[in-house]
Structure prediction request, 329 residues.
Amino acid sequence: MNKNLLVVKDLKGYYRGTFGVVHAVDSVSLNVGEGERVGIAGESGCGKSSFAQLITGTTTPLLHYEGGDVIADGFNIWKIPPETLRKEVKCERLSYVPQAMLNSLNPVRRVREFIADMLKERTGRKHSVDEASKIAAEHFEKLGLDARVLDVYPHELSGGMMQRAIIAISTMASPKLLITDEPTSALDVTSQRRMIELMIDIQRKGIIKSLVCISHDLAALNQLCDRIVIMYAGTFVEEGKADDVINRPLHPYTRALMDSLLPLEPETKDKSLSSIGGVVPDLRNPPPGCRFHPRCEKCMKICTYREPPEIKKKDRVVRCWLYSRGRSK
Prediction:
């Protein structure tokens, strides 16, 4: 068994403000082994991006770490000094590409100048623009990207090329774990395919060892990932091999999510789509029991007051009372 590069146990993160307390990530656990590509999917607002921020120690001002462990390659992210996190963990052990990646580059500096600044921050040593360009050009060419990208300003790049360039920049230090949030969003089909091929390529070439990709696009995750985790209202509800989760879902929410997507296969082109009834719960006051029960067609009495346990079925994990022998009607 490959060792785990990421171990998340009972992680909690809440937004706190004048609006109250939002339970964005509530007692979530996940292991990512060396060599794995893991996808995390769910509706907008389910907590995917908040989870990504928490496992990298890079949170927005209103999101607060509330408890649990996040261990990345032996470092407990929330229990080490910030300076250790910045110098010894980020970039070298894990790299994070946030959802708003297109805002990551400085609009008034050429890409090579931005990279020179980044190298200085990471190594503590000033690099000339020419030296930074040489280092970056070798890395870009290794990934099949045109080194001429280094000589332009961000606004001169297409959205797809900019996103691929940011992924390349984020992996220059060969981090063991790359975490990406919605890397294929706002891209056309051709650019999405190139992005997926790039992320597979950087692992195949040994630049990274493992990948966590967060996306609402299950079709993209199915092409990219070995394993998929489904998130709903701040909790994980199902986990398993990508093909099993997408084609043989266990949790009623996963089944409803798949039924609401447009099928790509020609033989299912006449399939009717269905929406998921009800509304996403207000996470300032999550419903008791299973958080999906107000919208679930298979809801039983126990679902309304008792949180479902984690149930293992072969190589699948599901949180649903339908699969518990000890359930009561």
